[in-house]
Amino acid sequence: MQELNNNNNSSSADRSLLEDFEREIWSKVPHLEDKSGKVVNATPLKDITADLKECAKSVFGIDLADKNLRVFGKFDSKLLAGSIKSRPAVNILRDAIATGKIKRGQTIFEATSGNFGIALGLIGKRIGLNVVTLVSRKLQEGVFEELRNEDIRIVNLDMDICPAPGMKGDANLMAAKATAWNVRAQLSELGFDPAIFDRSRSEIEAVLAKQDIINLAKLLAKVYDGCFCPEQYDNELNIEVHRTVTGPEIEQQLHEQGHSLADFRIVCTFGTGGTSGGLSRYMMEKHGKKAVHVIFPPADQDVAGIRTKAKASGLKFYEPDQYAGQHEVDFGGQAKRLLKFFVDKGYDMGESSALALYAAMQMANFGGEGRFVVIIADGIQKYRKNLEAMQQQQKQKRLEVPLQEAVSNIGNYDRVVWIHTMYTPRKEGIELIAKTLGIDESKIYVPKASEVEQLLMTQQIPKEMEKSLGGPDSKPLLVCMMGNTSLRVAQVLGQKGIGAESLTGGINTLSQGKGKHISELVRMATE
Predict the structure, then answer these.
(1) What is the pLDDT of residue 392?
(2) DSSP summary character for residue 172
(3) Closest by alpha carbon to 476, among 518, 517, 512, 433?
(4) Are 372 and 72 in contact (CB under 8 A)?
(5) Cβ partners under 8 Å of residue 380, min gap 6
(6) What does the mean pLDDT of the chain come to?
(7) CB atoms within 10 A of CB 415
(8) Residue 204 falls in which region: left (phi positive, over 0), alpha (psi -120 to 50) or beta
(9) Spatial separation of the C-alpha atoms in residues 51 and 74, rounded to whole Å
(10) Sheet with 68-75, side-by-side order of all strands
(11) Separation CA 371–CA 71 (nearest Å)
C-alpha cells in the first residue's frame, strides 16, 4: 500500500503509536514510496533454475536439462518475522492505528495457523501491543515455539482453525460446551475477567459448535471491550497488499533482470487466500490474464499453515475463477525430499514453499517448458525438527529406489507391481517396464485402480490386492506415473511389515529418451 493520506488519518489516532510504528515497522518492510512510485525494502527474487534442474535429476530422476525453463523464487522468508504473513499484518495494523481502532496497550485477538500470529507478536512487542492468538493443537511444535518466543499469549483449542465446510449449528454442542470451559479457563489465566466471558457464553458456544475459531476471535475482541481483531481471513487489506505491493514488487524486480512478469506463471500455496487473490487481481488488471497457480496438499495430508482444497472452499478469499489452475500435490512422499535438497543447499524455505516449488517442477516436466515465479512464503526454522525426523526415518527404512539401482538389483524383488488410483498401463507401458528393468512381462502385476484407492483411503490392504503384492513375505518394486502414489503405498505397506520399495520417478523416468509420450504408455483406468 502507498503512504497513508493524511485525510484518511482519524483525529482519534494515537499519534505517538503511529510514529513508532512508522519508524520501527513500516520503514523496514516492502511498501510503495510516494515520491518514486517504486517498492522499497523488496524481498529477494532469486533465479533458482539451475538448482531446481539438479534437484529434479538427482532426487526424482527427472531430466529437465534441455527444457526451456526459468524459475525464480520470491523469498519472503527474509521478511520481518520470517514469512509472507508480515505483509498483511503490517498493513492491517497500520490502517487500524491510523484510523484510531488501535491504541497503545490494547489487546489483539486473532485466529492463526502460525505465521500471522508470529508477525503480530513481533510487531506488538516492538510497539507496545498485546497479542492473544487462538490456535489449534494441530500446529507443529516448532510453530508453537516461535509463538512463545515472541511472548504471544496462546489460547489452545482442540480443533482446526477453519470450520468444516457446511457444518451447521448444534451438532457438536456438547463438545462446544466443554471447549468453552477450556477457553474460559485459559483466558482467566491470562488475566481476562471470566464474568465477561460468562455473559456471552451462549454466543461463544454457538460459534464453537461450528468449530469456527475465525469468528471466535472476532467475538472475543467484541466481548472484551477495547480489543481489536485483524480479521485476516476477511480483511480486504490481506488481498490489497499483494495487489498493490507484492505484484508490482515482483514486476519491478523481473524488469531489472530483463524480464516481464507477463511471461511468467506465479505458483503459491493457499493459507488465507490473500496472496493468491491479490496476485490474481494484479495480473488481470496489469496483464489481462490469469497467471496464478494455487497449490494444495491432498485431503489426507497436513502441511503447516496452508489449507487443503476442501478447507479453502469455505473461506472468503478462495476465488477459483480467478486462478489459472489448482493443483493437489503430494507433500509427505515428494515435496519433503525437495525441501531437504534445497535446505541442504542453503536455501531458507519452509514446507509450503517446498510444495509450491515441487508443483512448478512437475508443471515444467509435463509442459516441456515454462517460466515461473514461486512464492517462498516462509523459512525452515519452524519445521527443522520435522525435517530432521524425516531424515532419521529414511535412514531407518528406505522406501524408494532410483532407477539405476533398481535395474542393478532387480533380482532382489519378487515382482513389479503397477500402482495408481487413476491410470493403468497400456501394453506398450508393460513392455517398457519389463524391457527397462530386464524382467519378463509375467513378473509385472497390475491390481485394479479401485483397490489402490481403497488401500490409501483405509490404510488396509484389500483382499483382492494381496495376490498382486505377493503376500506378507514378498518384496515388490512399486511403479506408478511419477513416483508419488507408489511411495505412499510403500509407506502403508511398510507399516504392515511388507518391504516394498517405490521406483523414483515412476514410468515417467523410464520413458525419458525413449521417444514415448506418457499418453502412449498409460490410459485411464475403468475398473
Answers:
(1) 61
(2) G
(3) 433
(4) yes
(5) 77, 339, 343, 348, 349, 350, 387
(6) 88
(7) 17
(8) alpha
(9) 15
(10) 45-47, 68-75, 369-376, 265-269, 292-296, 325-328
(11) 6
Residue 368: all three cell numbers together: 516441456
Neighbours of 398 (CB within 10 A): 12
Q: What is the pLDDT of residues 198-245, one digit of tens each?
A: 999 999 999 988 888 899 999 999 999 889 999 999 999 999 999 999
E strands present in 396-505: 400-401, 415-418, 423-425, 444-445, 476-479, 501-503
- Residue 140 three-state SS: coil
Give per-residue pLDDT as tens, 373-413. Answer: 999 999 988 888 777 766 665 554 578 888 888 888 898 89
Measured CA to CA, the distance from residue 276 to residue 347 in angstroms comes to: 23
Three cell numbers written together for 155 = 489460547
Per-residue b/e over 220-241, b at no fewer than 16 CB within 10 Å? bbebbeebbbbbbbebebbbbb
Name the phi and psi angles at 128, rounded to 5. 85, 45
Q: What letters, b where the CB count within 10 A reaches 16 and e where it falls short, cover 103-140?
A: beebbbbbbbbbbbbbbbbbbbeebebbbbbbbbeebb
Helix (H) or strand (E) holding 467: helix 463-469
The radius of gyration of the chain's CA atoms, rounded to the nearest angstrom, is 25
Which three cell numbers mark 350? 519452509
Q: Which residues contact 191 (CB under 8 A, 6 or more apart)?
A: none
- pLDDT category at 10 given cuts 50, 70, 90 is low
Sign of the dihedral defined by the CA atoms of residues 188, 189, 192, 193, in that order: positive
Q: Place 175 in a pLDDT band, splitting at 50, 70 and 90.
A: confident
> Which H or E run contains 51?
helix 49-60
Greater confidence (390 vs 247) lies with 247
Distance CA 421, CA 524 (A): 9
Q: Which residue has the cell 535438497?
A: 341
Closest C-alpha among 282, 269, 292 to residue 378: 269
**DSSP tally for the chain: helices H, then strands E:** 23, 18
* CA atoms of 133 and 83, how far apart (whole Å): 17
Q: Cell digits for 293?
A: 497457480
For the whole model, what pTM was predicted?
0.74
Cell digits for 399?
522406501
Out of 204-218, 384-398, 476-490, 495-509, pick the least confident. Answer: 384-398
pLDDT of residue 346: 95
The three three-digit cell numbers of residue 73, written as one number: 523464487
- Are the CB atoms for 353 and 374 separated by under 8 Å? yes
Instruction: Please return the burial class of 492, using the count of CB atoms within 10 Å of its CB with bins 0-12, 13-18 and 19+.
Output: middle
For range 152-179, the mean pLDDT = 66
The pLDDT value given to residue 147: 77
Residue 124 · residue 130 · CB < 8 Å: yes
